[in-house]
Amino acid sequence: MHEKLRAHIEKIVHLTDEEYVFVSSHFTERHYKKREFLIQKDENVKYAYFVLSGLLMLGYNDEAGKHHIASFAMEDWWETDFLAYHTQTKATLSLQCLEPTHVLCLSLENYQRLCAGLQKMEHFFLAKANSGHIASQQRILSFLTSNATERYDQLLRRYPALLQRVPKTLIASYLGVSRETLSRLSS
Amino acid sequence: MHEKLRAHIEKIVHLTDEEYVFVSSHFTERHYKKREFLIQKDENVKYAYFVLSGLLMLGYNDEAGKHHIASFAMEDWWETDFLAYHTQTKATLSLQCLEPTHVLCLSLENYQRLCAGLQKMEHFFLAKANSGHIASQQRILSFLTSNATERYDQLLRRYPALLQRVPKTLIASYLGVSRETLSRLSS
Question: Which fold has domain A3-117?
């Protein structure tokens, strides 16, 4: 199916050709246009998405109508509203394309089948979940300990490509600062 | 060994007596006094800890010497500096007892052996890692979208017991607000 998915998984576990046929049979493929939604608030969350190309934004609208950004996801990243996906509840977040985006879709049922059917895949997803958990903890610490300048510098250091591709207003929202503050930082 | 650990694991996967003997053989047991450190900054992180009783605080000292709190952990919770544990690097966080605390210790080597030796345990740890990832994402959203009052109310709703056991100064640090702000909120 997609050598990108195989290469991504094989950073963690080696798969035989036969195993990869089994793995890839659990995914479906979709193309989305710029600005299209993969997940909308209050809808069911059917899939976790593996990004083959493009750029996604996971966002949240608060009661005052203000838009906040939980995360961005580009090539080789997994994204969904994980709470709604794993607990099969309605989405509280939205997932939208910032660029034309090509994804592989994995339903929760197929995720569970993959884990049960091939321990290597359970091991792979455990490694990804641990990395995700660690990255989230680092971001929590950055909210507690860093000011806007430091958070911007961290983002620049970790994901230089992202800053080229994402409008400044959205970067400001991700960092939890105003557009004006960000302009001062990035000028 | 400890029925609490077994009961905790069996919320997710059922174990036979024989399997539980295998599982519990991977843990060692330790008692810590109030204020003792399980992890200190810049030291190696040998273990992830399962809390049988007591209360732990995972903290971070910034360059100005200010102490920030990443999380609390009480009975039935797992805690460690996950980045340092999984990547076998030096601790950036510290883990300290707020009460006399009784823990089970799991080395990374034994974590990996447990996962490889019994797929049920890999499945268990995947479920825990997914929950941890989800909880972290919810906390990130709370930093972006909620003010101090709302964050305090969320904490009160989710972990009422915690507020009885943790000094107000530490709750303030966890919420990222001043002690004075917290006094207004909780009075």
Answer: Jelly Rolls (2.60.120)
Query: CA dihedral defined by A164, A169, A173, A179, rounded to 10 degrees?
Result: 120
What are A3's two structure tokens?
A: 């050598």
Overall average pLDDT of the A120-140 stretch: 92
The structural architecture, per CATH, of the domain B3-116 is: Sandwich (2.60)
Nearest to A143 by CA among B139, B94, B80, B155: B139
Report yes or no: B112 at the A interface, CB cutoff 8 Å: no
What residues in A contact B80, CB-CB < 8 Å?
Answer: none
A140, A142, A158, best to mutate vs chain B, most B CBs in 10 Å: A140
Please check whether residue A75 touches B, CB under 8 A.
no
Mutation target among B45, B115, B130, B151 for the A interface, most CBs of A within 10 A: B130
Q: pLDDT (tens digit, 9 = 90+) per residue, A26-80?
A: 999 999 999 999 999 999 999 999 999 999 999 998 878 888 888 899 999 999 9
Domain spans, chain B: 3-116
- Interface A:B, Cβ pairs < 8 A: 90
Question: According to the model, what pLDDT value does residue A1 have?
Answer: 57
- Residue A49: C-alpha distances to residues A54, A102, A108, B151 (Å): 12, 10, 11, 30
The mean pLDDT of B101-112, rounded to a whole number, is 97
Burial label, B66 (beta-carbon count in 10 A; 0-12, 13-18, 19+): exposed
Which residues on chain B are in Cβ contact (under 8 Å) with A140? 70, 136, 139-140, 143
User: Cβ A143–B140 below 8 Å, yes or no?
Assistant: yes
Query: How much is the ipTM here?
Result: 0.88
CB contact B119 to A (< 8 Å)? yes
CA distance A95 to A164: 20
Residues on chain A touching B133 (C-beta within 8 angstroms): 82, 129, 132-133, 136
**What distance in Å separates the CA atoms of residue B103 and residue B88, rounded to the nearest whole number?**
21
When pLDDT is cut at 50, 70 and 90, the band that residue B19 belongs to is very high
Confidence bin at A4 (pLDDT 50/70/90): very high
